[in-house]
Amino acid sequence: AWVDHLFTRLGLADLKHRRPRELSGGQATRVALARALARRSPLLLSDEPTGRLDAETAGEVWKLLLEVNREEGVTVVVVTHDPVILGSGPEVVWLEGGRLTRPA
């Protein structure tokens, strides 16, 4: 099932039956992402999805977001300061002084 795929992909398969208070901040972030993706909405808005994650897990989360965009057709809008994401998105725009711009 899609939810099982998401939980496995996000490294949460062994944590399905845990209570929220039993999760670390990074695990809670990944659960929130899995819940959002499980809805299969055509649009995903994500604010700092890798902010509370270690570098390896952040990379996996970013790969999953790109996969969902490419394979599921989901438009993924990410607000981030993460340099890995900033340099590798299919389309990057900056919000500076209230205006959207493209990086040079």
Provide the helix percentage. 40-55%
Strand percentage lies at 15-25%
| Radius of gyration over C-alpha positions, nearest whole angstrom | 14 Å
The major sheet is characterized as: 2 strands, parallel
How many extended strands? 4
N-to-C order of helices and strands:
HHEHEHEE
Distance between the termini: 42 Å
- Number of helical segments with 4 or more residues: 4
* Dominant shape: globular
Q: List low-confidence stretches.
A: none
Average of pLDDT: 87
Structural class given helices, strands, pairing? Answer: alpha+beta
Give me the side-by-side strand order of the main sheet: 1-2
Provide a short characterization of the protein structure.
With 104 residues, this protein is an alpha+beta fold. It has helices at 2-9, 25-38, 55-72, 83-86; strands at residues 43-47, 75-79, 94-96, 99-101.
Outline the structure in words.
Helices cover 42% and strands 15% of the residues. Helix 3 (55-72) links the parallel strand 1 (43-47) and strand 2 (75-79). It is globular, with a radius of gyration of 14 Å. It is α+β, with helices and mostly antiparallel strands and 104 residues long. The mean pLDDT is 87. The termini are far apart. Strands 1-2 form a two-stranded parallel sheet. Strands 3-4 form a two-stranded antiparallel ribbon. Helix 1 packs antiparallel against helix 2.
